[in-house]
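To illustrate the input format used throughout this study, we show a single complete record. The first block contains the structure-token representation of the backbone; no residue identities are included at this stage. The design step must infer an amino acid for every position from geometry alone.
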């Protein structure tokens, strides 16, 4: 246990006493870590697309009805909305789904989003810009995979025993 340290500072017209103790670092729930990481992925995804509008010719292409090589259509915009809606929903799902479903959902969705993020840089001439955006997204997605993969397990109850192969088996209770 760390004991508080009392320090006294003297200033010309004022004498104050400050209590200096180490800051508490409370354990953060896995759900909060996942939601925060998905929020960051979402912001990066949106801002990379937003800042890409500053590339010469992009707005002209949009005004001409083209994004990349695709004609702007309801189908294309629905696909774009779906791509950003998934990480958006993962923020809420990470905070509300039961642990087992939450873990599996995060593992699957983050695994699928790594190639989606990488695809965004394919064929782009601005490699520093898109490379940094993709790298940061992939780092966050890897962090999501790590948080979900290493999700803490609850300790077995007093009535649970462990078999020699490490599996939990119910201990017989004698009454």
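Output of the design step:
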């Amino acid at each position: 246990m760390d004991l508080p340290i009392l320090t006294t500072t003297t200033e010309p017209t004022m004498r104050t006493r400050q209590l200096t103790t180490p800051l508490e670092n409370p354990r953060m729930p896995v759900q909060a870590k996942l939601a925060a990481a998905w929020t960051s992925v979402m912001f990066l995804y949106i801002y990379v697309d937003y800042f890409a509008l500053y590339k010469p010719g992009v707005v002209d292409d949009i005004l001409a009805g083209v994004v990349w090589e695709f004609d702007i259509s309801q189908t294309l915009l629905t696909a774009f909305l779906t791509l950003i809606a998934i990480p958006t929903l993962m923020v809420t799902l990470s905070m509300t789904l039961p642990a087992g479903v939450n873990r599996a959902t995060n593992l699957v969705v983050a695994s699928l989003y790594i190639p989606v993020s990488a695809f965004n840089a394919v064929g782009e001439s601005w490699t520093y810009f898109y490379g940094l955006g993709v790298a940061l997204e992939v780092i966050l997605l890897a962090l999501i995979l790590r948080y979900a993969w290493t999700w803490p397990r609850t300790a077995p109850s007093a009535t649970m025993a462990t078999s020699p192969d490490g599996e939990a088996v119910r201990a017989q209770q004698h009454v």
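Structural context for interpreting the output: Residues 171-175 have pLDDT under 50 and may be disordered. The first strand starts at residue 5 and ends at 10.
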